[in-house]
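step=encode ok
step=design start
structure_in=
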C-alpha cells in the first residue's frame, strides 16, 4: 500500500472529509438500506476514483478545492458503487474484494434495488445543487459503460472482436469512468475551460492502460485475487488473444477459436491457449500498447507547472501499469 499512501499524501485531508460526506450522501430513512450502505462503506477499496477527482482539482486550482469538488467525488463514487453492485448480480458473483457481495448476503432483488438507490442518490446530489455540468459528465459515463458491457456480450457470442472493437469496448467499459473522474475534477474548479477536455482525455488514456494491465493478469503467474485463464473461461476476447488470432496461421486460428468456444472449461486446454498466446508475442504486444497509452497520458501533464498534485498524478499513472494486482 506504500505507493497508494504516497499518491494520497497531498489530498489526505480532503479524502478524510470526503469519507464523511460520502457516507452522509448515502443516508436513508430505511433501516435496511442504511445497514447495507454501512456495509459498503466499510469495505471500500483504494478509492482511486475520488483520488483522481481531488488531485486534478487541486493541481488546476493552486491546491484549493471547493464544495463542488466534494460533490463530484461523491457522485462518481455513488455511481461507481451502484455499477459494482449491479455487476455482481449480472455476473452471479458472491465475492467482491474478498468480502461477500451484496447479492450474496441480501439476494439479487435487494442488490438491484440498492444499486438503483445509489444511482438516484448520485443524480440527485448533482441536481439539488444545480451542478448540471457535472451531471452531464456522469450521465455520459453511465451510458457508455452500459453500451460497452452490451457490446462485449454481443461480440463474445460470435468471438469476432477486432482490435478496434476491443479498444472501443474497454474505452466504454473502463476508461470512460476514469475519464469522468478527471474531467469532473477539472470542471468542479475550472468550468468551461479547455482543461476539462484535456483531463477527460488524460483519464481515458489511463483507463485504457489500466484495462490492458488487467487483461495481462489473466496470463500471469502471480496470485491476484482472480485465477488465471478466467477471461478465456468466460470467452472474453482480450488484447493478447486478439493479437495472436490476427497473426497466426489459419489452422492455429481455427484451433484457438475452437478452444475458446468449445473447450473453455477444460483446464489443460486453457493452459495450452495461455502458453500459445505467450509464445506468439501476445503479451509483448499488449505491454507495448499499454505503455504507449501511459506515455500519451504523461505527455498531457507536461505543460502544467510542477506541484505535489502533479507528482501524485504521475505516480498514479505509473502505478496503474506497474501494479501487482
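sequence_out=
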Amino acid at each position: 500500500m506504500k505507493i497508494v499512501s504516497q499518491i494520497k499524501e497531498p489530498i489526505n485531508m480532503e479524502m478524510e472529509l470526503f469519507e464523511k460526506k460520502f457516507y452522509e450522501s448515502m443516508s436513508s430513512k430505511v433501516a435496511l438500506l442504511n445497514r447495507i450502505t454501512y456495509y459498503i462503506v466499510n469495505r471500500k477499496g483504494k478509492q482511486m476514483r475520488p483520488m483522481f477527482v481531488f488531485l486534478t482539482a487541486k493541481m488546476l486550482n493552486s491546491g484549493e478545492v471547493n464544495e463542488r469538488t466534494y460533490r463530484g467525488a461523491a457522485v462518481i463514487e455513488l455511481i461507481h458503487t451502484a455499477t459494482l453492485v449491479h455487476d455482481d448480480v449480472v455476473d452471479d458473483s458472491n465475492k467482491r474484494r474478498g468480502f461477500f457481495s451484496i447479492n450474496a448476503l441480501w439476494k439479487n432483488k435487494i442488490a438491484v434495488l440498492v444499486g438503483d438507490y445509489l444511482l438516484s442518490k448520485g443524480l440527485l446530489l448533482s441536481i439539488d445543487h444545480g451542478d448540471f455540468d457535472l451531471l452531464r459528465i456522469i450521465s455520459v459515463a453511465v451510458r457508455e459503460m452500459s453500451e460497452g458491457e452490451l457490446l462485449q456480450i454481443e461480440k463474445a457470442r460470435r468471438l469476432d472482436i477486432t482490435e478496434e472493437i476491443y479498444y472501443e469496448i474497454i474505452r466504454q467499459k473502463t476508461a470512460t469512468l476514469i475519464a469522468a473522474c478527471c474531467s469532473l475534477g477539472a470542471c468542479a474548479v475550472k468550468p468551461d475551460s479547455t482543461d476539462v477536455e484535456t483531463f477527460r482525455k488524460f483519464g481515458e488514456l489511463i483507463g485504457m492502460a489500466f484495462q490492458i494491465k488487467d487483461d495481462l493478469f489473466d496470463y500471469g503467474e502471480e496470485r491476484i485475487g482472480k485465477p488465471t485463464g478466467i477471461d478465456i473461461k468466460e470467452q472474453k476476447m482480450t488484447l493478447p488473444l486478439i493479437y495472436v488470432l490476427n497473426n497466426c496461421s489459419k489452422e492455429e486460428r481455427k484451433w484457438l477459436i475452437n478452444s475458446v468456444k468449445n473447450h473453455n472449461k477444460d483446464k489443460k486446454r486453457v493452459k495450452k491457449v495461455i502458453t500459445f498466446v505467450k509464445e506468439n508475442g501476445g503479451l509483448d504486444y499488449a505491454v507495448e500498447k499499454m505503455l504507449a497509452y501511459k506515455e500519451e497520458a504523461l505527455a498531457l501533464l507536461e505543460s502544467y507547472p510542477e506541484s505535489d498534485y502533479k507528482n501524485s498524478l504521475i505516480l498514479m499513472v505509473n502505478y496503474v501499469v506497474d501494479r501487482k494486482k
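step=design ok
step=annotate ok -> DSSP finds 15 helices and two strands in the chain.
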